[in-house]
Amino acid sequence: MLNKRIIPKLLIKFLDYGTKSIPSCVTTVNFNKINLVGDPISQGKIYESQLADEIVLLNFERITIKKNQNYFNFLKEFASTIFLPLSAGGGISSLEDIEMHLKNGADKIIINTITGKNINFITEAAKNFGKQCIVVAIDTKFSKDKYDVYIDRGKKNLNIDPISWGKKVQDYGAGEILLTDIDKDGTKSGLNINVGKLLSETLEIPVILSGGCGIAEHFIDGFKRTSIQGISAGTFFSHRDQNFFEARSQMLNNDIKIR
């Protein structure tokens, strides 16, 4: 059995200071309300020292990735400073975007909105860069008595449930799934165990569950009640350094195999 993974998530927003645009780490609530956390490289160093398994880094800006040298300069600096496996995404819409991420230090690529517009993009990406490199983010929320999948940062409903969509993107070549409940994002109310359980027990590829971690017990609950391979959290790790150690120690005390 593979060891379970604890994965800090960093959302990156560029803030203007005079003539400079500085990358900053933020957290969100329901993908909307933004809270400033601080310097992402400093945060990354903390997670590295705490033995995180890897890092998820998502560009929160609604900007074109192509030829955005400021963003890729930051990505390169981050990857050359923090020596952890790095999954990066946000705004990726072409094979060239993926290539630029990999050239600047990303180990895996996270795609979302483009998959809802052109699902064949998953196959093309997996063929060109390897299936193990392609992570498909599935963002879901409750709508009219059922869960639907949303793209465009929760703005556009694909009118398909996350289990069916998960099967589909797996068939098209996804190597891993990052499942996030938009309604739970940043609320600290606990993970969506029900959808996480269904999806992880249905798919053959790893599922990472995200959205809602508020206390260490939420990690225990997620790993014990589902077949997920990892949990990714942003808000939980951003405000108290000891949260990471608390989560690790409680997982070990509950016989959950981690690195």
Radius of gyration based on Cα positions: 17 Å
Largest sheet: 8 strands, parallel, barrel
Helical coverage, percent range: 25-40%
Count of helix runs: 10
Shape designation: globular
How is the CATH topology named?
Answer: TIM Barrel
Determine the CATH superfamily: Aldolase class I
The CATH level-2 architecture is identified as: Alpha-Beta Barrel
The CATH class is: Alpha Beta
Beta-strand share of residues = 25-35%
**Amino- and carboxy-terminal Cα gap:** 12 Å
- Which strand order does the major sheet show? 1-4-5-6-7-10-11-12
The total beta strand count reads 12
H/E series: EEEHEHEHEHHEEEHEHEHEHH
Q: Could you please describe the fold and organization of this structure?
A:
By secondary structure, this protein is α/β, with parallel strands linked by helices. It has a single domain, classed as Aldolase class I (TIM Barrel), CATH 3.20.20.70. 36% of the residues lie in helices and 29% in strands. It has 10 helices and 12 strands. It has helices at 40-49, 69-81, 95-103, 113-117, 120-129, 162-171, 193-202, 216-225, 235-238, 242-253, and strands at 5-17, 20-29, 33-38, 55-59, 86-89, 108-111, 134-143, 146-151, 156-157, 176-181, 207-210, 230-233. An 8-stranded parallel barrel has the order 1-4-5-6-7-10-11-12, surrounded by 6 helices. α8 links the parallel β11 and β12 (230-233). The radius of gyration is 17 Å and the shape is globular. It starts with a strand and ends in a 6-residue tail after the last helix.
